[in-house]
Amino acid sequence: MSTGIAADPRWTVAAAENAVRADSQDSQHSERRAGGHARHTIGGLLDDAVMLLLVIWLFPVAILLIGMPVVLLVRVLLEIAQRM
Known about the structure:
Elements (H helix, E strand, L loop, with lengths): L8 H75 L1
């Protein structure tokens, strides 16, 4: 003997009130996110700048770490070839 929730007028009013509240909460949330968006952009730019500086610094270090053993090996081979 129960009626459906949609047929009960109490639930339709409650659903309408919750829809209004949800809309206002969404708009407040988007306003908060818009204010934090500028900070996120600045933080992202700083993060990108730090990564760029790190890559710029690590590129010569990688060349040295890879190049030094190669240069030393070539020098040793040249010394051996001269003594023969």
